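Message: I would value a second opinion on how I read folds in token form. Give me a protein, with the fold worked out from its sequence. Write it directly below this note and I will take it from there.
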Amino acid sequence: MNPLLKYLKAIIEGESELQPWSSWFEDNKNALSSLLSRGAYLRLKHNPIQEIPNVLASHGIPFDAVNRPVLPVGETDFSWIRLEWLTERVSPYSSADYQKAATESYLLVDLLRLVEIKREGDEPWHFRSPDATWRNKMGCAGIALVRAKEVVYAITLLMN
């Protein structure tokens, strides 16, 4: 297997002992630009978690979809947040994250959307992707709105 594709497969499957994404990408940008179309290269550079599965699929490389941290393709698809990533239930009145979301203008729209779609029985939770995603500079954390054991909305507050 091409070493570039092997690394992409390893990172999307959550291997923990990998070179950090930013330095690996810098070291391999010329080889990647030769391997991929210009569009795929740019998508990989700017949205790696979303693009890696597409690159692997286009090269016919299977990967473990169970634990891969996938960013949403569409605005309403929050299945990329795994239930095992939920860390604690939060109250909108006491959570520092809610207060941050309410005071940051770029997050206010997201918070208003969460309040708009919240139904009785929905639960807001903190979420945090696994440690391996943080070590590989692909981690994310925030607030997820859970309805019947399914994440129906999320606000990403931190990415690395």
